[in-house]
Write a structure and sequence with these properties.
alpha+beta, Immunoglobulin-like, 4-stranded antiparallel beta sheet, 35% helix, 25% strand
Length: 350
């Protein structure tokens, strides 16, 4: 074998080694840029580190990539979702390599991927479009999320006031049924229109200052009165069964000052649903719960259920889920702002 042949073989071997090193380097770089999670809720002390470098804050709307490590502090919470719709929620302090977090993710499906996408879109929204119902419905037809920069401004709202509406101030579980008075007209504290799936309905309202007794009136679509009762409270719990409300029918209710009938709220509506929709809702709820962290008893689980209920016009169920999400994470600006937008969308008063 002559020297030229030896040189050719040597060059080929060197070229092969160089190509192998190059491919390995590129492969590692690509792997490190592989997106594993999107951050839905970040509360408290939450940081991320890449390749043992600087620890950086990990706010909602950002992404976690392969090779990164997450650090959770005491009394903190992190809710994540993968591109496949698998969810993870962490509440225990510690270090979590992203490669280990992916192993903790729920099984996920196209269903949870869709609703997790809606939640991500709303939680990372950089503007006030979330308070517009038509914009929100349009956004719900997509599964993508809106990125929010780390320094984007958060909408101004009164935290204490918003939490008070949920009975989450000073540990008091008063809910929306607390005694409430206002200087203006009588205002129901319920969605303007909602479908009903539960047997118990809580009718709530704000009454005008000076009003002692309120008359709750319920009528059917033909203007026939089916219920009237006076009360000195600002809420009343009534049973669909006791009221004998028919399935797949709408009813209208209002509150009036007993002393002055001119002090009257506008009419709000409640609609019962047919059995087939009830069964379909129940099946979907079970699926979302099964595919959410802690069987739905998590922030991401409650928010996905809230989105689903709102999509089905089951606004009282949605409101309940927002309340439960805030009980889990009352210090989360992301969750409370999401609740604020929801209330604005469905026309609930401040």
């Amino acid at each position: 074998m002559n020297n030229n042949n030896l040189r050719t073989i040597g060059d080929t071997i060197l070229y092969g080694i160089a190509l192998l090193i190059f491919c390995s380097t590129v492969g590692s770089a690509i792997a490190s840029e592989t997106e594993l999670f999107k951050v839905l809720v970040s509360k408290g002390t939450v940081f991320v580190q890449l390749n043992k470098g600087e620890w950086l804050p990990l706010p909602s709307g950002t992404k976690i990539f392969d090779g990164e490590t997450v650090k959770i502090g005491d009394n903190s919470l992190l809710s994540l979702v993968t591109t496949a719709g698998k969810a993870v929620e962490i509440k225990s302090a510690g270090l979590y390599p992203s490669s280990e977090l992916i192993k903790q993710a729920t099984k996920g499906s196209s269903l949870t991927k869709r609703f997790a996408g809606y939640v991500a879109n709303e939680l990372t929204r950089p503007d006030e479009s979330g308070v517009n119902q038509e914009n929100y419905k349009a956004n719900m037809r997509t599964t993508g999320g809106v990125e929010r920069a780390n320094d984007s401004p958060v909408n101004v709202f009164d935290r204490t006031k918003e939490l008070a509406k949920l009975g989450l101030v000073d540990g008091q579980e008063t809910g929306i049924s607390e005694q409430q008075t206002i200087s203006g007209s009588m205002i129901p504290i319920m969605p303007l229109a909602t479908d009903i799936i539960d047997d118990i309905i809580q009718f709530s309202w704000q009454k005008k200052q000076g009003v002692e007794l309120t008359l709750l009136s319920i009528r059917d679509a033909s203007h026939n009165s089916i219920y009237q009762k006076e009360t000195d409270k600002t809420f009343m719990n009534l049973s669909v069964t006791t009221l004998k409300l028919e399935k797949n029918s709408c009813y209208f209710w209002s509150v009036t000052s007993v002393a002055n009938p001119d002090d009257k709220s506008e009419e709000y509506s409640i609609c019962t649903i047919p059995d087939d929709k009830r069964e379909a809702v129940s099946d979907t709820v079970k699926m979302i719960e099964q595919e959410s962290p802690n069987n739905g008893n998590s922030v991401i689980g409650k928010l996905m259920l809230a989105v689903f209920y709102e999509q089905q016009n089951l606004m009282q169920r949605a409101l309940k889920c927002y309340r439960e999400a805030l009980k889990i994470a009352p210090e989360s600006d992301d969750v409370i702002l999401n609740f604020y937008h929801f209330r604005k969308r469905i026309g609930m008063p401040d």
